[in-house]
Amino acid sequence: MNKLMGRFLYKISHSPWTYIAHGLFISYIALQWFIGQRFFTASGTTDLHRFFAAFPFAFILYFPFLVYSARIKKLWSFPYSTAEISFSLVMSVFSVCFASTLLTMFVPFATVIFGNVEWSQFFCGYLGIFLFAFCAISFTALIFTLIENTAAAFVTAALCLAACNSIHNIPLYADTGAFVSFFIKSISFAWNFDSFAKGILSLKQVFYFLLASVFFLFLMVFAVEKRKGNRNENFRKSSRLFLITFILLCSVNAFINV
């Protein structure tokens, strides 16, 4: 698996789109904090909630750029299992994202010069960002797997990430009912991330991102194996067992409130 990740990382590091994406991502985070929220005016604040709230929207184009950069022709013909290839792809993109996200820490550290920062909010926020990132990267990689046309996959991934980050606002403008409102909020990445941005560590949201990440990775493997024409009975049984386990875990997670 190390060789696989090395190959993906080599591909990412030699793509000009990677550096364009890094520049846009870090610039957006910094400018949104210092200029977008008018930090140097009387209305400016050192509350990091606004800082972390910018990440989900910065990721909308950032992740499609990175996954696009990591894509290798004849990806699924490598002499490794589909699960190993899928996980290596996601982990490689996540490693690059992790490094660039660490660079954004200069913003909170610079903010300390002008006022107080809640360090519990700082640590919770970045934990949430990394969970969010792994989940959203898995989701983006799934879309690139399902759609073979790169341009179409890029646009679809960006639109889907934008929808997942803003769909929770629908109940504010329309009477959707309690159940529909709960469902809409449950599929919104940004809504589930918001508690981390406020400095609240919620196990429900931690498990939400972990379960969603595993589910998207499973769908990647399942889609590729179906495309290859895999009709192995053990594969079918394993898929059914995974889905049952996933549904049970999601049901249990709905009652966790710690």
Describe the structure.
This protein is mainly alpha-helical and 258 residues long. It has 13 helices and no strands. The radius of gyration is 19 Å and the shape is globular. The model has no long low-confidence stretch (mean pLDDT 87).
Mean pLDDT: 87
Shape label: globular
Taking all Cα atoms into account, the compactness measure Rg is 19 Å
Q: What's the helix count?
A: 13
Instruction: Count the beta strands.
Output: 0
Sheet-strand content, in percent, reads under 5%
The description of the largest β-sheet is:
none
Tell me roughly what share of residues is in helical segments: over 70%
What low-confidence regions span 5 or more consecutive residues with pLDDT below 50? none
Distance between the termini: 36 Å
Summarize the structure.
With 258 residues, this protein is an all-alpha fold.
Short descriptors:
mainly alpha; 13 helices
What is the element layout, followed by pairings?
Blueprint: H1 2-13, H2 16-36, H3 49-53, H4 55-70, H5 82-103, H6 106-111, H7 119-146, H8 150-166, H9 170-173, H10 178-186, H11 189-197, H12 203-227, H13 233-253
